[in-house]
Amino acid sequence: MLIDLFVFLLGTVVAAALVHMIEKRHPRALFRAQCRNCTLPIKGHHAIPVISWVWLRGRCRNCRRLIPSIYPVLEMVGGLLFLLVWWKHGEVLLSSWSELIPLARTLVFTAILFAILLFTLFHRAVPKSLTVTTIGVALMLNAVILQGIFDPLTSVVGLVLGMVVLGVFFLLQFLLSKGRWMGRDDIWFGILVGAMFSFTGGVFVLVLAYILAFFVAAVLLASGIAERRIAPTFGTFLAIAGLAVLLTNTQMLSSLL
Ligand SMILES: [Zn+2]
After folding, report:
1. Residue 164 predicted with pLDDT over 90
2. 115 Cα: distance to centroid of ligand 1 (angstroms)
3. Of 86, 138, 215, 250, which has the fewest Cβ atoms less than 10 A away?
4. Is the confidence at residue 236, as pLDDT, over 60?
5. Ligand 1 is a single-atom ion; what residues have CB below 5 A from it?
6. CB count, 10 Å around CB of 181?
7. What is the pTM of this model?
8. Confidence tier at 143 by pLDDT (50, 70, 90)
9. pLDDT-derived band of residue 158, with 50, 70 and 90 as boundaries?
10. How far is the CA of 52 from the centre of ligand 1 (A)?
11. Do the beta carbons of residue 226 and residue 213 sit within 8 Å?
């Protein structure tokens, strides 16, 4: 229980740093928390994720400007993601070191998908440099994991098929919508999902993302706030679906579909 709390808090700290870095698009921003309005540095006990926001009633202690609730929400999402990774691998890891590589895979994939989620929220697009680099990382980690578990040929075919099918599917949407609904760089995100989840998993993530997007669009339309400015992009849903498939019991999820 105490260790769960520690893992959750660690996740909120990592998420707070990542949010700040990706929003500013600068690696150095990682260690320099500051108010988004008056740019005063946030230090010490005012920089504790979630807790400080609640303590200061969601306002900057200097300029008193409201801090949008998306920040503590994203910090809590980070905590929850860490907790899910821990629940998936933690106890097995304590008894066997063989769990180390699966844990590394889950942790790296979680970090990548969370970073992509932040990019889609703050900048509406994922940089190609991030997706292309991580396609290589994903293939490498999957190659190590799949070795000896499945027939290598089937695994390789699954990964290649996943990348090609998802890549082509995204390319078609980009061409059909003339880039309005799917950006050129999103095609790389499609290929990345194939490299991470292989063919079957990739298609599953895609279907889940469409269902999520459909429900959110329906809610936004019904509530009359379907402004393009606040509507998340498809990449947001794809990242959320990827995290859900990665970190939860997929059998439970598939029974819902
Ligand atoms: Zn301020």
Report:
1. yes
2. 25
3. 215
4. yes
5. 35, 37-38, 60, 62-63
6. 12
7. 0.87
8. confident
9. confident
10. 14
11. no
